[in-house]
Design goal:
By secondary structure, the chain is α+β, with helices and mostly antiparallel strands. It is 51% helix and 16% strand. Strands 1-4-5-8 form a four-stranded mixed sheet, with helices on one face. The protein has a four-stranded antiparallel sheet with strand order 2-3-7-6, with no helix packed on it. Strands 9-10 form a two-stranded antiparallel sheet.
């Protein structure tokens, strides 16, 4: 699936990443999940080939591209059955924020390793009582001499066990107004007072989820990323790429499921006719393809706007892309399982585990209802109910 709006370089990147993904495939991911391990081999090879760092600056070992290129990498790995969830987190969120707002020292310390896959950073924003409301974050940072002391709790933080540090969203008090404002801190996972607890998930994924407890974690002054007063601007510099990458994740998964269903519908014959010849089977698969393609177009638009520096335009498009991709993915997976009938629930065909995985794109990193709120208020200008 290539599009005429993509450059030759992007088409070539798709092809190369797709080839890597197919060498690993769904079986590799299933085996790593069963073994309780992260997909280290694929992550390392993708890093050595330069795919993890395509969006990061060349001077720090990256490819000098943008979220457009990184979203292609994730989508194609997903379409091959081997998506890397931490692509959303380490290079897309953390790498982007550090590249845009970090000090030279922070960039030198983190970006080369994030780009080649030898270092990994997780991202901590979600809290037990705040959910999607970043204004209710209670993790606070207070000054102690030149140091910071960070206290709070986070939940559903991916990949903490394999991360060198977590980019934590906390809040500091504005000396002028007394109000709390969001700030970003790099917190090493071996810091004193940093505690992690795995969350028992029904979801089958190579990346584990954690609850974090930060108990007066002492950080040096240079743990703060960016300007203490920039607040939401810096935060959304990471959250817009997160939505775009989640959309790419969903589109890749939907494409994988759809391809399996199409292959089955071509080969499976009942009463001497392939079931794919029947419109009751063919039309829903065609609709799923159309929805995935439409979601992909909006994802490309969002990535283009973000890479062009249009943060406001990218915010709207990224939310729409995430919404469309989440819906398209869930429908594609559901239709794929339904096309295979009983076989769709067997381990042999590997589609049933995608039923729960597909829902992630509807729920995270922000629910579809919150996206509809955003479009209602920001795009349509309707009043708020909250």
């Amino acid at each position: 699936m290539t599009t005429h709006i993509e450059s030759e370089e992007h088409t070539a990147l798709r092809s190369a990443v797709s080839a890597l993904g197919r060498r690993y495939g769904r079986d590799y991911l299933v085996q790593t999940v069963a073994a309780g391990k992260p997909p280290t081999e694929l992550w390392s090879e993708a890093g050595k080939l330069g795919y993890l760092g395509v969006s990061l600056p060349e001077e720090y070992g990256g490819g000098g591209g943008g979220i457009t290129e990184l979203s292609i990498v994730l989508e194609e790995l997903g379409a091959a059955g081997s998506p890397l969830l931490m692509l959303v987190v380490s290079p897309a969120i953390c790498g982007t924020v550090i590249a845009r707002f970090g000090t030279d020292a922070q960039k030198r310390q983190w970006l080369p390793g994030i780009a080649d896959g030898t270092r990994l950073m997780a991202f901590g924003i979600t809290e037990p009582d705040a959910g999607s409301n970043s204004h209710r974050i209670t993790t606070t940072a207070r000054r102690d001499g030149t140091d910071w002391l960070l206290t709070g709790r986070k939940v559903f933080i991916s990949g903490v066990d394999i991360a060198d540090a977590v980019l934590i969203v906390g809040r500091t008090e504005d000396a002028r107004t007394g109000r709390l404002k969001p700030c970003l801190f790099i917190v090493p996972t071996d810091a004193e007072g940093f505690h992690r607890h795995p969350i028992d998930m029904e979801l089958s994924a190579a990346e584990k989820q954690f609850e974090l407890v930060l108990d007066d974690v002492r950080l040096p002054s240079d743990a703060l990323v960016g300007d203490e007063d920039a607040g939401l601007l810096q935060l959304f510099a990471g959250l817009n790429p997160e939505r775009i990458m989640t959309a790419a994740f969903a589109i890749g998964m939907g494409r994988y499921a759809l391809a399996k269903a199409v292959e089955y519908a071509r080969d499976r014959s009942v009463w001497k006719t392939p079931i794919g010849a029947h419109q009751a089977i063919a039309h829903p698969l065609a609709q799923a393809h159309i929805d995935l393609e439409l979601a992909r177009l909006m994802t490309q638009k969002a990535a283009h706007l973000y890479d062009a520096g249009d943060d406001a335009g990218a915010g709207e498009a990224a939310n729409m892309a995430k919404y469309a991709a989440g819906e398209a993915c869930v429908k594609a997976v559901d239709q794929a399982v339904h096309t295979l009938g009983g076989n769709g629930l067997t381990r042999e065909f590997g589609l049933a585990s995608l039923i729960t995985a597909a829902r992630v794109a509807r729920i995270a990193p922000v629910s579809r209802e919150m996206i509809l709120n955003y479009v209602s208020h920001q795009t349509l200008g309707l009043p708020k109910s909250y």
